[in-house]
Amino acid sequence: MENVKRNAYGLELFAKEKTEFIAFYEEFLQKEIESLEVERKKFMKGLIPRIIAAPFLLLVIYYAFRNITIFVIPVAPLAITGWIGLYWMRYKKKLESRAKMLIVPKLVKFMNPHFTYEPDGSLTIDDVNEMHIFKHRADFGAGDDLIKGHVYDRDEDAKTYLSYSEIVVRNDYKKRQKGKVIEKPLGMLAAGLLFKVEFNKDFGRSFTMVKPRWLLKKRKYRKKLKQFDKQHTMQEVLLENPEFMKKFIVHSTDQIEARVILQTDTMENLLEFVNYVPDTIERKQRKRKKERFIPYFTFYNNQVYVLIHTRSNHFILNIMKELNIDTVYDYFKDINLVLRFIDDLNLNLKLYIK
User: Fold this and answer.
1) 119 lies in which domain range?
2) What φ, ψ does residue 168 adopt, rounded to 5°?
3) Partners of 117 in beta bridges
């Protein structure tokens, strides 16, 4: 029987370990990645000569046609750029598509057999607007790489449903009233990862929001966030954990329910979740900038919504870099994030089952 990892509550831990990933990679993906790397190098070998040849082609075209037409001066650079661009886009898209469909479906099943993967699916703009984080509602949303399903602890007979995807949301349209602009567009609101997870606890009608406190000190972020005055139903909640209060600001429609949700262990686990920085395997690890990991949490309707603004496209292949185990490990870390969240907050705790 498979060894099941459990925490202090006796709950099964669903997040995978680095050693488990390495074993999976070596058995199921290493040969395929090495084959893709050969293709990538072949593509780059075709690209580099084109880039080197471009200035010489420009000179040849200029001297060959300079006495015939003056249009050669603006047209020649555009034509050469287009020639290189067509080669780049054709092979880049083909290689990225192959790599993605080779890696992600296998990886998703490895992470949890109850997960499904829809490359063109995503959570929606409505899911982001349900969080009520931003000053104006998002009016444009796009996303892909939807992973959904559930985790199941057989011993506890506890099941937690989740969905997860990449998403970009914007506020681009002016709001007018009687011909006057009453709301200016905010532009980019968030780009990164969105997931919602069943909490298995009845919040009643309460709505609780958690966001990084430092955002309020930066005008470019503060102006996009929803603000609450003393007359608003959403009021700031002061909690007993000084470290948590220093890092986050909490608002809720129900002070008592917010404290029930954000108990001592939950606050500590949220801190652990946001402070955790996964390592690399072969690649040199870079320090994570706080602007590249901005987490927002909303507890509402028995769901936890988590939006992480990273300004990154996560499930895309960078063909300028070598394809190796770290390429797949980047995908692994993103999927493992939602499993870590379930583990860290004990969301599968039988005590919480409705």
Assistant:
1) 115-352
2) -125, 130
3) 147
**Residue 300 resides in a domain:** yes
Q: Is the confidence at residue 124, as pLDDT, over 90?
A: yes
Q: Does residue 257 sit within a domain?
A: yes
Q: 298 — phi, psi (to 5°)?
A: -130, 130
Contact yes or no for 65/79 (Cβ under 8 A): no
Q: What is the pTM of this model?
A: 0.87
Structural domain contains residue 99:
no
Give CA–CA dist 146/346, Å, rounded. 23
Residue type, 266: T
Question: Could you give the number of structural domains in the chain?
Answer: 1
DSSP-derived letter for residue 281 is S
Token couple for 154: 């057989």
| 241 against 175, higher pLDDT | 241
Burial zone of 218 (CB within 10 Å; 0-12 exposed, 13-18 middle, 19+ buried) = exposed
Angle at 336 between CA 332 and CA 339, to 5 degrees: 160
Please list the residues that pair with 272 across neighbouring strands.
Answer: none
